[in-house]
Design goal:
Elements lengths: L1 E8 L4 H13 L4 E8 L13 E4 L6 H12 L3 E5 L1 H10 L6 E6 L9 H16 L4 E4 L2 H10 L7 E3 L13 H7 L7 E6 L8 H14 L3 E6 L5 H10 L6 E5 L5 H6 L2 E4 L8 H8 L3 E5 L4 H4 L7 E3 L4 H12 L2 H18 L2 H13 L2
Parallel strand pairs: 1-2, 1-4, 2-3, 4-5, 5-6, 6-7, 8-9, 8-11, 9-10, 11-12, 12-13
Length: 361
Amino acid sequence: MKVCHIITALVFGGAERLLVNHTNLQSGDHEIHIIYLKGEPQIKPLLHPDIKVHYIPLNFKVLANVKKFLKELKPDIVHTHVGHADLIGLWASRKLSAKVFCTMHNVAYKGNWLDNIIYFLYRFSFNRISKKAKITCVSEAIYDHVTKRLKVNPKRVIFIPNSINEVSIAESNSDIRAKNGIPVDAFCLLTVSRLTPNKSIETLIEALPQLKKEIENLYVVIIGSGEHLEFLKNLAVELDVQDVVNFKGGVLNPEYYYKVTDLFIHPSLFEGLPTVILEAFRGEAAVVASDIPGNNDLVKEGETGLLFPKQDSSKLATQIIKLYKNATLCKKLAQNGHQLFLNKYSIKKYASSIEKFYGEE
């Protein structure tokens, strides 16, 4: 079977890593093509070499160009992901014989009034332009959003939770820390994220002055790139915490950092079902996350992590200090999160569910 995925970008994001993990499995049984629309294909090196990657620029000709490409490719399945790619893919494939699928990774995009316009475009596309398209939702909150707010018939929608690969790392924590410049005795905080406004990494940085007073050996790792990088660097200088903050940029294999961090911090303003929290669970890192849909689907207070009100840097600092002072609780949360990952969020289960959905009439 010939499957063509369409995604806005191939950057270090949760939706993109899910696509990589899924298509690497798919490539064993199908001919896989991926169209991306903008930016550098940062995570292309992680794709199986049999997967064919195509760049079609996001400009005023993009709809016509994608439509032409699909017409020539003649895929059996068109599967779209994220924002521009969803809308363009739904419109470009509407007269093709291919089955059309859309994975919804988020319930919000801009976090402001523009979201209402985006919701309208999705609602119109699903219900008028691509009436037979089927939708997969990576969280229950997104399922509710699609069936209620976007008014898509539930018969066309399925909830298949975000999932990731299992990994095995043989190196010792001390060796990994030494290779990556993390002091062996440091209390390490990690966040992995696109550096954009909706990820609210500034909330973590704003918590650091309070944390520096309580944690002598504090060391903070921020992995990711994006439009807010300079803003965040300047904020760290302004708050005099630049000595403990380490910006690592995009990292192809962040699992080594998850393995050696003491806490994983995820202060996002809105999410689908965050891949990075699953990666933290996989790496047995205790998690502190903002209390929003998506995050709190995974992080249950006192069971699989701790929560704090979004944008509340003081409460975030309090939760971090709580775990710094209580190693037993920290270990318990990490172990519970890891067990949840093993039980429910394997990429093999995800791929099997998608394959079954592809086969439904």
